[in-house]
Amino acid sequence: MEKNITENTNMACDKDFCALLGKNEAELREICREHGLPVYKGGILFKWLQAGELVYDQMTNLSKAERSLLQEHYPLHLPAIRREQRSADGTTAKLLLDFGGGILVELVIMNYQRQQSRSRHTLCISTQAGCAMGCAFCATGLSGLVRNLTAGEIVAQVLQGQLWLQRQGLGKVTNLVLMGMGEPFANYEQVCRALRVLNAENGQNIGWRRITVSTCGLPAQIRRFADEGWEVNLAVSLHAPDDDLRSRLLPVNRRFPLAELLAACDYYTNKTHRRISYEYALLRDVNDSPRQAQVLAELLAGRLAHVNLIPVNFVAETGFWPSSDETLNKFAALLKKRGLEATVRERRGLDIDGACGQLRRRNDE
Ligand code: SF4
Q1: Is 330 helix (H, G, I), strand (E, B) or coil?
Q2: Alpha-carbon distances of 261 from 220, 236, 255, 306, rounded to whole Å
Q3: pTM
Q4: Is 138 in the pocket of ligand 1 (CB under 6 A)?
Q5: Whose Cα sits closest to atom 4 in ligand 1?
Q6: What domains can you pick out in the chain, each with its CATH number?
Q7: According to the model, what pLDDT value does residue 36 have?
Q8: Active site annotation includes 356
Q9: Which residue out of 106, 153, 183, 279 is catalytically annotated?
Q10: How many CB atoms are closer than 10 A to CB 136?
């Protein structure tokens, strides 16, 4: 189901309209101090912003003069929702967010209703507009990088997702995955800044262990991220068990081959004690043979690893076809037989252009 949103009242925003959203409480206190406002008002402002209230006049515990001053210096808008699609089964929604200036990014909202434990609402957010990494099977990579998103724009996606959940009468955002458009570690500073804000107790309070950062494999940044001292889940896009094929599928492998990447991954697990999820999108007759399953199992043997097998969506422009369910299950069984933990990712959003970059590309058409 798809809707074009025409009556959205939010103005499209450029990065200035989201800048305050990427500030932590201490920074907002400093901004208040600079403008002659009581420093403690920075804490109040932080709470309002993280509650998704961006209209200063609604911030009733700020004085009228304070609200006017903030409005004048820091006008705020969330990105407009340009398009919205929902899967037929109601579990997945995809929003196309417009930050102004031609910057369109995708936000995916996945709802896992559970009977025994609390429901899970996971947002898949973007860290860049476009992407420079050029992975051969990826819709986003086809258009190249437009620009990095700011920390405020990354946080703005979470707020927009939270407000969407509220409108549906659903609960709070419980999990975040940075697997949307872009390579998070190619925008390292802004991503870490946003994560600190989103983790803050008096903000979204999303625990480190409920956040997953997905990378195509930048070893220096993986090591640096390990040193942040957070227990964030790391997902590494592997997609091939050897350098030859991986270099064809992921150009980043030509600069940072598997040995270098896996050494950085080992550093990450040693530092954080977190199991790494190795992502493996199964492409028909490219990387899905029993022999390749065997090589993959050997590559990851002895590592704290989980293999996430991904049934891809067909994207005509990339020319890759998904492996059959039978091949997927056989591949998973072979990995398990060799002692690796492997699961097949649930197919979600197939009826809504579920692969990254597809909704934005359709909007261009
Ligand atoms: S798969 Fe990820 S890293 Fe690769 S081109 Fe697409 S968005 Fe970029």
Answers
A1: helix
A2: 9, 9, 10, 16
A3: 0.91
A4: yes
A5: 135
A6: 15-73 (1.10.150), 216-359 (3.20.20.70)
A7: 96
A8: yes
A9: 106
A10: 16
